[in-house]
Design goal:
Length: about 200
């Protein structure tokens, strides 16, 4: 089962990345990103690709330039996440045959991202857009558009976001904070998966 969940490991250290990725995959979260403003992020991504690349999708977040996209591609990663809607970044990502998840906040950004080839939209910051904001945007989006709520989504409000048409979620501190042990992350991941499955399979 492919859950529409993205684990955001902001601040993860390279020596911890593989073990954290392994417990996430075991819990059922199989799409994992390392933001590029983390310590030595490309090494962390390589380590995760080596550990779980056969059973998970690994990528980078906070990707702001085409040069960064190319560097991420070299790690073996398969997707790019950005906090913004940069059309050059989206085009470069698709040219390199990776999935593109740009950050959007307005209908104009949503349609520009989709027209340029985005695979899904990252509503960010979702907490600022709000439930009503997502409902309004969804009303005009093409059928089948995937929207992830990021920045404000957590297990306790998954149901509210899902009712407003969110397809999935990107989760940072709800899953991982720098220095957490694999066991701590495993416990949080289990709670996230239980909440997600309760909403989307219940």
């Amino acid at each position: 089962m492919m859950r529409h969940l993205i684990a955001i490991l902001r601040g993860v250290e390279p020596q911890a990345a593989a073990a954290i990725a392994e417990v996430l995959v075991t819990a059922g979260i199989t799409r994992i990103e390392v933001p590029l403003n983390s310590p030595d992020p490309l090494t962390s991504i390589r380590n995760m690709v080596g550990a779980v690349g056969d059973c998970a999708e690994l990528g980078a977040g906070t990707v702001l330039t085409t040069k960064q996209v190319a560097a991420v591609k070299e790690t073996g990663a398969t997707f790019i996440v950005s906090p913004n809607c940069d059309l050059q970044v989206i085009r470069c990502t698709k040219t390199l045959r990776m999935k593109s998840f740009p950050g959007v906040f307005t209908p104009s950004e949503c349609f520009a991202a989709l027209k340029t080839g985005a695979d899904a939209l990252k509503l960010f910051p979702a907490g600022m857009a709000g439930i009503e904001g997502l409902k309004a945007i969804r009303a005009v989006l093409p059928e089948g558009t995937l929207v992830y709520a990021v920045g404000g989504a957590r297990p306790s409000n998954f149901a509210d976001w899902a009712a407003a048409s969110a397809d999935g979620f990107g989760l940072g501190s709800a899953l991982y904070k720098p220095g957490m042990s694999p066991r701590e992350v495993a416990n949080r991941a289990a709670a996230v998966v239980t909440a997600y499955d309760g909403v989307f399979d219940g």
